[in-house]
């Protein structure tokens, strides 16, 4: 679409006309300019359209300035808002010593305050939280995450958590879990701390893992590392069941029944025993979304030609 | 309108209260059109007044007080928005990752409104303030000039600039605007 040559004087004149601020001579000038060329006319119409359409942006809620003033005064009464007054007279040496002491104490207190440890704790249900740097963590049941209030992208995990880390090449994100440290730039991964082993499963990106004083190892998407007292071993991720507490989905792809039973037992706080020899190794392919334990057990056992029953607190599959 | 200049020793509480009460509503309306959120807008204006009060001795107001207040509110809102944008971008990202299948485009009207808002917020500070006073406070050029301590000529030029920038920003959307404005006019002027 062709537009008239850039001319601030014309722009000013058109708006003046539009708002009824133009003199008779100026109005004539605008009419003449518009008649000169269809493009000019269209340009003026655009101005009018925009002026009309922008009215919808008017603020909806008028505010009561008296009430606002009350709020302002209440805010000013807070100690943090009080004006600082300077000390001018009687500058004795003692005063400097006192001032230095106060500064030192304050600095220590502030440093302590900034470094105080914050704990994120999940209880009977999983918990999702955004950390101060924008990274997101989902803690599985009965897990905790500790970090300092000033947040230096270094956290300590106890239990199991899924991390979706905000990218920041200048400051890597560190997760300490037991003796291991997991270092990331921007990625998502799961860490599970069990009794005998800690498993780090990477979903996207790459992470570097260092156990104690060992050499750092890197793993990428679709891989997991199993850390035990004996060292760290890398393998390909076998299933997506580790995601269940975040996604509420149990996805099995030729997953051994025993593995599913283990995850279900944890998810539903119910011990599950497999009584038939060899049944724990039977592969199952199915996806369960937001279903009850009974429903999952029904489908899983029927598929494999087995059955299940409750014996007290326990579920038995045979 | 009363001029207000904090002297080297600050100002009296009554003078400050007068200043606050006489400007709060307009500044709040200004912050509202920038942020689209009444309570956040209030916080921004409160911040500006709190700072002015605290630093009364230090602040030297070169132009009119009103121009100073608008400028401060404008920057306060923009900073706030920048901060929000970073947060929202992340949240949007997280949601997308969580459920890749969901989420379609918004309605064209909402889209247009946000385009106009976005284009208005692209205007430079002085230009934005003058546009605000003319469009939403319905002030005459002369009144705007008096409030902001500038010449009527400057108001004229800045208003021309405002519409030019809006046009450049929204040129692709003008046909949509045409349809919506026409509909509004028909609706408003329809006898039944």
In short:
Chain A is of the alpha+beta class and 318 residues long.
Characterise this structure.
- The complex is a heterodimer of chains A (318) and B (192).
- Chain A has 318 residues and is α+β, with helices and mostly antiparallel strands.
- Chain A has three domains: 8-115, no CATH class; 117-236, Sandwich (Jelly Rolls); 241-317, Phage tail protein beta-alpha-beta fold, CATH 3.55.50.
- Helix content of chain A is 32%, strand content 31%.
- Chain A contains eight helices and 19 strands.
- A seven-stranded mixed sheet of chain A has the order 1-4-5-7-8-11-12, with no helix packed on it. Chain A has a seven-stranded antiparallel sheet with strand order 2-3-6-9-10-13-14, with no helix packed on it. A three-stranded mixed sheet of chain A has the order 16-19-18.
- The longest helix of chain A is centred in the N-terminal third of the chain and has 22 residues, at 93-114.
- The radius of gyration of chain A is 34 Å and the shape is extended.
- Chain B has helices at 13-35, 38-54, 65-98, 108-122, 125-135, 141-148, 152-170, 174-189.
- In chain B, helix 2 (38-54) packs across helix 3 and helix 5 packs across helix 7 (152-170).
- The longest helix of chain B has 34 residues, at 65-98.
- Chains A and B meet through helix 1, helix 3 and helix 4 of A and helix 1, helix 2, helix 3, helix 4 and helix 7 of B.
